[in-house]
ethanolamine-phosphate cytidylyltransferase (Oncorhynchus tshawytscha), 343 residues
Amino acid sequence: MVIMTLIIPPHPVGEISQHKGPPVFTQDERYKMVRAIKWVDEIVEGAPYVTTLETLDKYTSDFCVHGDDITLTVDGKDTYEEVKRSGRYRECKRTQGVSTTDLVGRMLLMTKAHHSNIGHSDYQQHTDNFGKGPKGHSPWTGVSQFLQTSQKIIQFASGQEPQPGDTIIYVAGAFDLFHIGHVDFLEAVSRLSDKPYVIVGLHFDQEVNRYKGKNYPIMNVHERTLSVLACRYVSEVVIGAPYAVTRELLDHFKVDLVCHGKTEVHPDKDGSDPYAEPRKKGILHTVDSMNSLTTDSIVQRIIKNRLLFEARNQKKEAKEMAVIQAMKRREEEKGKERAQAVL
């Protein structure tokens, strides 16, 4: 039997700022967000930015895992160089199109149609500012399109049906830029029962834009689906849920309780109360998450630090391009050596 523990070490804010630039979330927010990911068993607070064998041994880790991009220190060195040399490094493929760089750019673009504006001149300007350095284009930093597949959803979904005795709780919303405010709300919802089965209804992008306005949602419904499914307090997601919580929906999922946070409830298209049915049935419950963080708050953080984020991403790509050029030179030199050996 193989027992595997996933330990996630969120780096301290100071180290992130030194090597990558200003983080979007505070240190405590990042710790709590990572703890809420359903595949995480334990986190190590204050982990060093450069992963060493000493760190792996300290936490009895067999190896460390990273995506197939490269992570560099402020002086351009590979942060996993030591563990790679020792054979205690594993790599997994990153999800194409999921990029903090791109999300930051969407927040700064501030247009209603940013999801479909990839060929537009404004979006191209965002690409230039956030995905291109002065000497080329890195494959690890930049803008790409996220393509949802059934396999991705299967990987994230629990696949578990409600069991006898479960309390089926329904919540609905945009859950855009899934953040600690959402986590605290969903955790509070799950605590309403000893055996909660939490279903999250996600509204389509057009619906979110209708009641939120501006350039919301920042993330499209496919991206939001995976973000919510990754949360340990969520059992199931309804993709494209109706804005009004109807009798048909309640009956279909056999809902025992409908929850909403203390945020504003926007009326439906016809001006009606979207929670009229669960209110009439006496199953509507207002949940206070004790957290006032909103998606708009995060957008304001990004806007406030716009120039810092632009500089961060351009420096990041410049370092990556330098590594790419060095790798190319090494390959060329090896090719020449092999050719000379044949001669």
User: Anything to note?
Assistant: The longest strand covers residues 167-173. The chain is about 40% helix and 10% strand. Residues 7 and 165 are 32 Å apart (CA to CA).
